[in-house]
Amino acid sequence: EEDSLSPFIRLQEKKKQARLMQKALEVKEEDFRERMKVITCRWRDLHAREAQLKTYMEKSGRILKENDKMRIQALKKAIKERERKMQKKSELLRAKRELEALRNKHQKLCNKVQKYSIFNKYLEDVVKISHFEEIQEVIWRYKTLLRMHKDLLQSQQAHKEMSEQAKVLLDQYTAEKEAEILQYKNELVQLQLRFEQAQSDVLPWETCWADIQNTTAKKTLKLGTIKMAIFNLFQ
């Protein structure tokens, strides 16, 4: 009787182990789903932070342009004030020098006007076919566009550097999470293999238990026949 019960006990233990393995597998799968939810949330947070960073960069660029404009205006005002004071102090001394310098300059300008008259004609034609009223407005417009182009290049360079840094951080974060996902997949495969092994172990024990039940039924039938024969002999 003990020999017949031992396989049954081992079979029950194997079934219990299989149930425990199934429960552990379900817990691992639930934990894996929760981690994937957390990773998805972090991805959304990262995209939101990238949008905030872009907005901040645009706002910072506008503020820098406004500050540069105010600084240039203040600098120009200070320079003009200093020049006015110096002019008042040295007006008499510089009068003759300025006159001579103006004459020389006038001569040079006349030479330059003669030399660059073709460009003046070109600018006059530009004024005629554009919305500008004077040549000086065209020159101012060109200088303004040139300065804006320079500021835009600087802003683009700063944004490019920030984007590269964000990309490096994103690549590092992605690599870490991919490694974690791969590790969880490996654990899931190992648990699946163990579960399949446990199921394959249960099948022989179930076959053995069926054989034991058949043998027990035969012996029980034989014992009943013997008891009946003894009872008949006793009668």
Automatic annotation (TrEMBL):
Domain of life: Eukaryota
The keyword Coiled coil belongs to this UniProt entry's keyword annotation: yes
Coiled-coil ranges per UniProt: 65-112, 174-201
Alphabetical GO biological process terms: spermatid development
GO cellular component terms, A-Z: cytoskeleton
Transmembrane portions of the chain: none
Keywords: Coiled coil
Boundaries of every DUF4200 domain copy: 11-128
UniProt name for this protein: CCD42 protein
Record organism: Fregetta grallaria
Organismal lineage: Eukaryota, Metazoa, Chordata, Craniata, Vertebrata
Name of the gene: Ccdc42
